[in-house]
Amino acid sequence: MSRSASSNFLWRPWIPVTEPVELQITEARGCHVRDAEGTWYLDGISGVLNASCGHGHPRLIEAATSQMRRLAHYDPMAASHEPAANLAARLAEIMPGDLNETFLLNSGSEGIEAALKIVWQYWRNLGQERERVISFAAGYHGTTALGQELSGLPFTVNDWDDRFPVDQVTLPASPRALRTPEGAEALLARFAQALENGTPAAAVVVEPLLGLGGCVVLPEGFLAGLRRLCDEHGTLLLLDEIFTGFGRTGRMFGFEHDGITPDIVVSSKGISSGLIPLAALTATTAIKDTFRNSEVAQGLRYGHTTGGHAVAAAVAIAVLDVMAEEKLVENAAAQGARIQAGLDAFRAHPKIADIRGQGLVIAIEADSPETAGVLATAAMRQGLLVRGERGVLRIAPPLTITADESLELVEKLGGAVAALD
Fold first, then answer.
1. N- to C-terminal Cα distance for the chain?
2. What are the b/e assignments for 105-114, b being 16+ CB within 10 Å?
3. Where do the DSSP E strands lie in 84-200?
4. What is 25-53+327-418's CATH topology?
5. 3 pLDDT above the threshold of 80
6. How does pLDDT run across 374-415, given as a tens digit for each residue?
């Protein structure tokens, strides 16, 4: 080797290739992780925002090892297996309305890719040529080619030619102003305009809470209004619950806050608590039926070698059991409220523009990206890992966080805010 033994040969995602390795995690337990120097941190970002049941939950490890001893996986195109079938049945139980049909994949990006292909084929199954999609400009839907088309965020720019027409709706106000009746009305008006102008839309694709787009909490009633608009225009409503699903917002799914039923839901991250890659696309039976009954239907022309992996499905079933038995959805709501109440003391700080959240998704918006960077670094020095993104500090600890750990999180953030003075 031409490099020294201490060189980092790992090509890491999302950072410049010249950036040095500053933190190496070697162990994780519950809501805490340890680095190579032996320092323990409170994990305020749930690993990759996906350790819903905390790190190293014994029930999940047992589910994985037990299933691996029996059957790791088998080609889902050639044969079914019990874990995948049982997981699909469990998802049908917890999803509302006619959301009964689940397709299993490996990642949220794959789920969005599959969902867009299903939307495209669905309209052709019905003899219509709808292709236009409406999304948030500040939405994030993964890094595969089709998912990138939906987003207007600078780091998701697609260098390839457009594959289908997309209208991206911009926010009419700041995140704080958006959470008012006037903000909600203005936001719905923009989606109404997008639906009315142009060819009939195939789908509206949104997150219930904008994650990488600034951790923006959408106004109460917005999704209900969007559901009505989609119904008026005969447009499918596709909810990206990759980050928000499985208890993160204090409800099992983010769309439950408005009591609606979308046509397609894509979920990932918390579904397997980060133990093994998994994603789920759940659609209505009415959508799947067009693939069975249409003269032009060719079946679902999409799949991956490890999609619906038996071990991943077994872990997901265990996640649902743990969430129910340990009341993690309820805990997310309670601890999220506790953390936000503890952060109230910082709202008046001149370098903090907004503090917002829903369940265990909490954001501190700073007055600049530089200030947010200082906050994230100061929090790490306090023993708390959080994520700073373009001026916003995102906080999303495991759903297993206790009341004492929530207070610890607030205290460490208080120490970080003090570094701004």
1. 47
2. bbbbbbbbbb
3. 99-105, 132-136, 166-169
4. Aspartate Aminotransferase, domain 1 (3.90.1150)
5. no
6. 999 999 999 999 988 889 999 999 999 999 999 999 999 999
